[in-house]
Write a structure and sequence with these properties.
The chain has about 200 residues and is an alpha/beta fold. The chain has 6 helices and 7 strands, in the order ββαβαβαβαβααβ. β4, α3 and β5 form a beta-alpha-beta unit.
Length: about 200
């Protein structure tokens, strides 16, 4: 049966998920800036819902540091219909967090342990908290790629094929580079619904 193999392939649009206060990236791409200052009330999750729940065109989520933890928490708990546009995620240095983000990271790391419902790749310096990051990659069902771009011999990757979806995600790697210039972002500014908790 012909499934439309002649139809043009629509490359997913990259969207950077950042945390308020993060250093800007050196590229001009759409972004979602999460406010994790009051993590307990769930406002950050509503920001992600507003940004992605109604999208139809495919997207790839790019995140660094604590934003990776927020994205994976959201993806594991959201209705699958909210994730229909997400083709995958590239998660860079998920445990490379600032001192002021330590309490948030501790909460998120105790969150859900399901596999992510889309392909994902975790990038990380092979010398920085590598055992802990490999454990996260296992929980998320993610491919782990070392700092030099090579897959490790970790059990998560040893017997697995390297599918096209993961190769596609690595094409977005350069977009996560932090630069000195301040880009002109096309920021997603969705007004979130009332928070999950009644009080802030």
């Amino acid at each position: 049966m012909d499934l439309g193999s002649d139809a043009p392939f629509e490359k997913p649009q990259p969207i950077v998920v950042m945390v308020k206060g993060d250093q800007p990236l050196a590229v001009d791409v759409e972004r979602v800036e999460l406010d994790l200052s009051k993590f307990h009330n769930g406002r950050w999750a509503l920001q992600l819902d507003a940004a992605f729940a109604r999208r139809d065109a495919p997207v790839v989520l790019l995140a660094r540091g604590v934003a990776c933890l927020a994205v994976t928490w959201w993806a594991q708990l959201s209705p699958r219909s909210y994730l229909r546009a997400v083709s995958g995620a590239l998660l860079d240095s998920p445990l490379n967090i600032g001192f002021e983000q330590a309490s948030i990271a501790a909460i998120v790391r105790t969150g859900p342990t399901y596999r992510l419902p889309f392909p994902s790749v975790v990038l990380n310096d092979g010398l920085f908290q590598v055992e802990e990051v490999l454990a996260l990659a296992d929980r998320w069902g993610s491919r782990f790629i070392g700092a030099d771009g090579t897959a490790t011999e970790h059990p998560s990757n040893r017997h697995a094929l390297f599918p096209d979806s993961e190769a596609m995600l690595l094409e977005y790697r350069a977009l996560l580079h932090i630069g000195a210039k301040t880009p002109q972002y096309s920021a997603v500014s969705a007004e979130p619904s009332p928070p999950f908790a009644a009080s802030d």
